[in-house]
Amino acid sequence: MTDFIAQTRTFYDAVAEDYAEMFRDERPAASPLDRAVLRGFAELVGRDGTVADLGCGPGRVTGHLASLGLSVFGLDLSESMLAIARRENPGLRFEQGSMLELDLADGALTGALSWYSSIHTPVDDLPALFREFHRVLAPGGHLLVAFQAGDEDRHHDRPWGHPVALTFRRRRPELIAELLRSAGFALVARTVREPGPGEVSRQASLIARKPPAV
User: Cα 94 vs. chain centroid, distance in angstroms?
Assistant: First the structure.
């Protein structure tokens, strides 16, 4: 296991309950613009097939997508986060695993979501991550990637007093778009919004499509 994967899992195992409590009163996506992106993604994917919420955390976006009619399951590194997800969404499926090595057959998904879950992946590992997303999507399937936009990373040390630390990486939307194209995706939509209450950076999302089979 690479260092950043182990560090990410350790971090979220430690902070899971505090994290879930801090954001308990927020909707799965706090901004109405973010909710519009999720709804648009859901409509593009449609209700046939399976969608994976990759890096699902406490499962609130997973539950939101299920409420929009998608057949969706969540995957996360952190067993502590998954325990919260299962507790809060008893009717949904959640699995432990790494986004870089998905236990899924080629073309198994009609949709995949990385909602702020690629932000701990070093830039050199993003091409492999996006190739893995491309592998598990069926031809014509859609991918949604959301992240903080910018150039300067933020490092969180000892959150809520826990002896852990993790870097939160900001990206330029142009970089993510180019990496997605290099992985074989066609870009469908790009949104960038200004920071909302409690946010310090712009928020970006990209929807991409695996080209249909010829």
Answer: 14
